[in-house]
Specification:
Elements lengths: L4 H26 L29 H22 L3 H8 L12 H32 L2 H26 L4 H25 L11 H33 L7 H4 L2 H26 L4 H22 L5 H28 L2
Helix pairs in contact: 1-4, 1-6, 1-11, 2-3, 4-5, 5-6, 6-7, 6-11, 7-9, 7-11, 9-10, 10-11
Length: about 325
Amino acid sequence: MNYSKSFVRFNWVTLVLIYLVVVAGSFVRITGSGMGCPDWPKCFGQWVPPTDVSELPADYKEIYSEKRAKKIEKFSKFLSKIGLKATADQIMNDPTLRVEESFNWKRTWTEYGNRLVGFLAGNFMLAMFIWILIKYRKRKLVLITLFNLVLMFLEAWFGSIVVASNLVPWTITIHMFLALVIIGIQLYVIREISPVQQKKIELNKTMKWMAIVVLSITFYQMFLGTQVREFIDELTKAGYGREAWTEHLGWAFLIHRSFSWLVLVLMTYMIWKNEKTSKLTIVRTAYVILALELISGVLLAYANMPGLVQTSHLVFAAVLFGILTMLVFRMRSAATN
């Protein structure tokens, strides 16, 4: 089936918006704005949030603390039903989860901006689903885009849980996992509809397996990176400065750092083989993005760099994940033809 150029471009724009959600979420994290809006989907009960504390009732902290307590209770019951009673009890018995932050308009509007980007991405995905359903009616794509749309709504809902639980670490990890799955599915849709992305990428058996291994490690690295970030937050709360981070981060940081060098070695071999044979742009691009990611990682670990480096590190990792995912999708197609 032939898909229009406008539809293919629309899907690429949707992918960019999904990536912007990841960027916005990271920016919210580094600025500490996750609690800028204490409720969801509205912000302080309004579709357009306030800009000054005078616009809120005097007892706004008590109001939203009570609402948060109800949401935490519901979420804890859900966790108990799926067999996570210990986690549910820990959340229910944590008094810090019911403490509301003082109003800060910068944090409020940072979080609100994050929600607007997510809303825009979700609507583009909805429009894409309707477009396929009405014009193309290809059953596989209808089901795939519907599933991804459901995941996007689930991601938005889970975002409210992240807020309600006051950024409990493991909820952030699940939030990241859902984002990567959504990106992967959107890339698969693009691969299915774009004539350019359907072109075969001929790689020998060794290169194919190396691409799969590098993708798998990159996927795992993003979760390790999330855990490292969580440990840093805990160390900061405990009063440790940046100079003490590396010696207290533990195994997650050591594996994260070691795997980064492993990916560099594997990708260096891949780029060497690529330049000798096929000279594929996608492999070259992946190598450049990897280099930028590693540089930002070194700056994060050993230099007192601004928080935006954290966002760039995540963005480079997410882009590398996307490039490698598309490479694997396309080389698999070549292997079956």
